[in-house]
Design brief:
Blueprint lengths: L8 E6 L3 E3 L3 E5 L5 E2 L4 E9 L15 E8 L2 E7 L1 H10 L3 H12 L5 E3 L6 E3 L18 E4 L13 E2 L6 E7 L14 E4 L2 E7 L2 H8 L4 E14 L12 E10 L5 E12 L6 E2 L2 E2 L14 E6 L2 E2 L8 H12 L48 E9 L2 E10 L12 E15 L5 E5 L1
Antiparallel strand pairs: 1-14, 2-3, 3-12, 4-11, 5-10, 5-13, 5-14, 6-7, 6-12, 8-9, 15-24, 16-23, 17-22, 17-24, 18-19, 20-21, 20-23, 24-25
């Protein structure tokens, strides 16, 4: 916007109004004040007794579990399990943007390079660039534009607290260190961030932005989670396989207009990501690739796809059509590479993805990018997931083919803000 560096604006650094370490904090906006909606969190991250890398895909965004914006107790916009969705949004940046910009801001390890030896794929991130500190150290902390997780802010010209009275930003912190860093045995303290905002001090500019503003329509990101039970039968003998199909209703999207969704599959038991206290691959913010997985959605009782989606390439193309490019390394959407089979040690010793670590087996970056997304663009009465995978008999400690899974689903739900002539407002699903 052309006014950002003029005398019409005043940069405000807002300290928390309340702060409970490792639990939550809140920021209160000044009354009868106007701000640009590009509000940001600065100095976001965590620290511990020993320095370790942040989660490779979420970076410092792993610290935000839930976030919401509230006026007089009325929720304007919110996101539950925001860290997982923010990790997904990191993947939607281009490889160049992740390598050059975003990993400096979010401290992730995205942005991959082809190495001259053996065509190895690696992150170009230098050693200490995405590590936590052992105390408050601003060089180890990151920055988040809140328009990413509170999409209402992208669709209003101004935050006017004469309309949105007693405006508060509330954040609940992530408490599981396995989602913050790449170790499970180093306790983390979430650093209380600062809120940055541009206050509009020019009355003329404020009037021009608020005049005629009667509301907006935006896509709020809603969340639902499904549990898929462990497969325990039919795989007891050598070479046994058992295809199991289950149907799951997603009640979070009932009676809402949904534009698009993204599905992420994770272990229910988060210790499955840990080997020798180290988190493998993308950890809990990746998406697993179970054996012979099939996905079908049912919308109001009718199949969304002509047939269940099975092949990784089909799922990848549909995800691209809905969400655009996804910045994942080679083989991330497949369960194994070449002659390597599920449950066997990786044989690739060139340093290419997956890492040459027999303990990881097929559990490094291979099989960590099984995200699936699609467009719906319709009013949902009832949305359900028909999910199928084939369990196998193997001794792998972490096996997406038969271990219990949590399937996280994020959907963009149409909402509307109506600002009345008397200064009141109404929030509703469109």
């Amino acid at each position: 916007m052309p006014f950002f560096y003029s005398t019409d604006l005043k940069q405000q650094t807002i300290d928390p109004a309340s702060d409970i370490t490792n639990q939550k904090c809140s920021f209160r906006f000044a009354d009868d004040t106007a701000y640009y909606p590009n509000i940001r969190l600065a100095n976001l991250g965590s620290f511990g007794s020993v320095s370790h890398e942040y989660n490779s895909v979420a970076g410092v965004y792993g610290a935000i579990r839930h976030i919401r914006l509230v006026s007089n107790g009325v929720e304007l916009d919110a996101m539950r399990f925001a860290n997982r969705y923010l990790a997904w949004k990191n993947l939607l940046n281009t490889n160049r943007d992740n390598e050059s910009v975003m990993r400096k801001l979010s401290k992730n390890q995205l942005g991959f390079q082809i190495q001259p030896t053996g065509h190895a794929v690696s992150s170009g991130l230098s050693g200490a660039e995405n590590t936590t500190g052992t105390s408050r150290d601003e060089s180890k902390l990151g920055h988040l534009d809140l328009r990413i997780c509170l999409p209402l802010l992208e669709n209003i010209p101004v935050i006017d607290t004469s309309v949105f009275k007693n405006l508060v930003l509330e954040i609940e912190w992530e408490t599981d260190a396995r989602r913050l860093i790449t170790r499970d045995n180093v306790a983390q303290t979430v650093q209380t961030p600062l809120l940055l905002a541009e206050e509009i001090v020019s009355q003329q500019l404020r009037t021009s932005l608020t005049k005629g503003f009667t509301g907006s329509v935006w896509n709020k990101v809603e969340h639902d989670v499904i549990n898929v039970s462990e497969i325990t039968t039919g795989i007891s003998g050598a070479g046994d396989t058992n295809q199991v199909n289950t149907v799951h209703q997603m009640n979070a999207f009932d009676d809402k207009f949904i534009t698009r969704i993204v599905i992420m599959k994770t272990f229910s038991d988060k210790s499955k990501y840990v080997s020798s206290n180290t988190i493998s691959g993308f950890g809990d913010f990746g998406s697993l690739v179970p054996h012979k997985e099939k996905i079908q959605l049912k919308l109001n009782g009718a199949n969304v796809f002509p047939q269940a989606l099975e092949h990784p390439a089909t799922k990848a193309m549909m995800t691209y059509d809905a969400w655009g490019k996804v910045n994942i390394p080679p083989y991330a959407m497949t369960e194994s590479v070449g002659a390597d089979v599920d449950g066997s040690a990786q044989l690739n010793l060139s340093g290419a993805v997956p890492p040459a670590d027999a303990n990881n087996k097929a559990r490094g970056l291979t099989g960590s990018g099984g995200f699936f997304g699609c467009s719906l663009n319709t009013k949902v009465g009832q949305l359900s997931l028909d999910y199928s995978r084939t369990g196998m008999n193997n001794a792998t400690a972490a096996a997406p083919d038969h271990d219990s899974l949590d399937i996280h689903v994020y959907g963009e739900c149409r909402k509307a803000l109506q600002v009345n002539s008397n200064g009141s407002f109404i929030i509703s699903y469109a």
